[in-house]
Specification:
The protein is an alpha+beta fold. The protein has 15 helices and 19 strands. A hairpin with a 5-residue loop joins strand 8 (about 165-170) and strand 9 (about 175-180).
Length: about 500
């Protein structure tokens, strides 16, 4: 069976846009960013869904002409039965969940149809969030580029800034707030009269959170890197970016604060997490039962097995183990936050944290017969960190290295202290590197390795997924700690992942 989620973006009357489509090679392509809208009139079943606002079944024997353009959306020339279920926002249809079987043409199973009806509400939230997030992302990125590239002319940009839904606050080179829109007033709970003319540092107590501290904000003029933040006020969940503004000569021009209301996104994320947890729980029991019976048969409980029977049961056992591993990975991914991070900061000995992560990776190292080398500088500095979340990020990096390295290969962990200077001031950083002997990454794959699985597209991103685990949560956690992560790699030569974290000041 193949599944597609179709999102209708109101770019023009009677137009739609494909948000996500599975292809015949089992990859998922998210095309709404690049694909031109298609006329809904070209696909009668979608028009039917919009008019009737209820699920429909299509059979290739009776509706071949209607099915052909529908299957063509994901590049399938064969026909098979299809089930279409509308996705609602209130009383409005914002998308369609399509289940089809063009490969064998067998009728769709009742259990699959029940599952489709059950998850339609969750998918509607995901589609709605994807649409809103994409539009807001494009708007805010465009404004940020303009503000950093050109001298800010308040009158020229005031109407644009007021029209967008994101909050915008801008300070000048002296640190005084001189521009603020209505959305920022709502998200901060402060009026322009209270903030315009005040020093930008007035905002620090309001926006600090999610790993962003007032101390890190005070050092903003020493950095060229944006700082991410997350905070809650009343019933609002707000995600922000604090962006240092510099001209072409790298002279300090001020600060841009972008604020986004992610309350709906947080709700959608919780619904997604609940869905994954429910599916995982329902699948574990039958998989465990099947695995137990296979082990009994392999152990001779049902009599002596011939060579063919043993081989077939071993194939079944490996399939069950793979399914259990996929469920465990999905559950672990849900446990690692990727957006609205709440950090419980404390001073942590870096050496202890790295040793804990190494111990967690030990069973996988032994099972895959890997050679593991740890080279930790004797006097590593303490760091300010959420011990649990940062350990999870380091464990995931090591786990990824162990999975992509062939059995009998080498995985290494190194850590040292490095000083970096900016504007005549020195700062100490903890540098951690994890190297593997996997297949390596091409330049295109290196750009995608830290992107969420759900947002990467095409055959290149599929190879990235096949070569290791999703590392987007790792980047989110590292950046929330004021650090950065990058990769050095070449195809066929393995990869080295580097993490830089600010050392705690004495």
């Amino acid at each position: 069976e193949q599944v597609a989620i179709l999102s209708f973006v109101q770019m023009a009357a009677g137009a739609g846009c494909v948000a996500a489509v599975t292809s015949t090679d089992d990859t998922i392509h998210f095309t709404s960013r690049d694909t031109k809208p298609f006329p809904l009139a070209d696909i009668p079943p979608l028009l039917d869904i919009l008019e009737r606002q209820q699920a429909i079944h299509l059979s290739p024997e009776r509706e071949a002409e209607a099915l052909r353009p529908l299957y063509a959306l994901w590049g399938e020339s064969r026909l098979g039965p299809a089930f279409l279920h509308p996705l609602f926002q209130g009383e409005k249809v914002i998308g369609v969940l399509v289940m089809g079987n063009p490969v064998s043409g067998r009728p769709l199973e009742p259990s699959g149809l029940r599952l489709a009806r059950g998850i339609a509400a969750y998918l509607a939230g995901v589609v709605l969030f994807q649409q809103h997030y994409h539009m807001l992302e494009m708007q805010t990125e465009e404004i940020a580029v303009h503000l950093q590239t050109f001298s800010i002319e308040q009158d020229k940009y005031a109407s644009i800034i007021e029209a967008i839904g994101d909050g915008v606050v801008v300070s000048n080179r002296k640190g005084k707030i001189y521009l603020m829109n209505n959305a920022a007033e709502r998200l901060l709970g402060k009026s322009r009269q209270e903030l315009v003319g005040q020093n930008f540092s007035t905002l620090y107590p309001l926006i600090a959170g999610g790993g962003l501290t007032e101390k890190s904000l005070l050092n903003l003029n020493r950095s060229n890197e944006p700082l991410s933040t997350f905070f809650e006020r009343d019933d609002l969940a707000v995600q922000g970016q604090v962006i240092p503004l510099r001209n072409s000569r790298q002279e300090w021009m001020g600060v841009l604060l972008l604020l986004r209301d992610v309350t709906d996104r947080r709700t959608a994320d919780r619904a997604k997490t609940d869905f994954i947890e429910t599916i995982s729980r329902e699948l574990r029991t039958p998989l465990t039962t099947a695995g137990g019976y296979v082990d009994l048969m392999l152990g001779g409980a049902t009599g002596k097995l011939n060579i063919n029977q043993q081989y077939f049961l071993q194939v079944v056992k490996k399939g069950l183990e793979r399914a259990n591993e996929l469920i465990a990975n999905a559950t672990h991914l849900m446990d690692m936050p990727t957006g609205d991070l709440r950090l419980e900061m404390e001073t942590v000995p870096a050496g202890d944290l790295l040793k804990e992560a190494s111990r967690t990776a030990r069973p996988l190292i032994v099972r895959r017969k890997l050679h593991f080398a740890a080279e930790l500088e004797p006097e590593l500095p303490p760091i300010r960190a959420d011990r649990v979340q940062l350990r999870q990020a380091l464990e995931r990096l090591l786990d990824n290295a162990c999975r992509v390295t062939p059995e009998g290969g080498r995985v290494s962990l190194r850590a040292w202290t490095q000083a970096e200077g900016l504007n005549g001031q020195q700062s100490r950083y903890l540098i951690v590197s994890v190297s593997d002997e996997g297949g390596g990454l091409s330049p295109k794959e290196q750009k995608l390795i830290f992107e969420p699985v759900a947002r990467s597209t095409g055959s290149v991103s599929q190879r990235v997924k096949e070569r290791g685990r999703d590392l987007s949560p790792v980047r989110a956690i590292i950046e929330a700690h004021g650090g950065r992560i990058w990769v050095e790699s070449a195809e066929g030569k393995g990869s080295v992942f580097h993490v830089a974290l600010p050392a705690a000041e004495a």
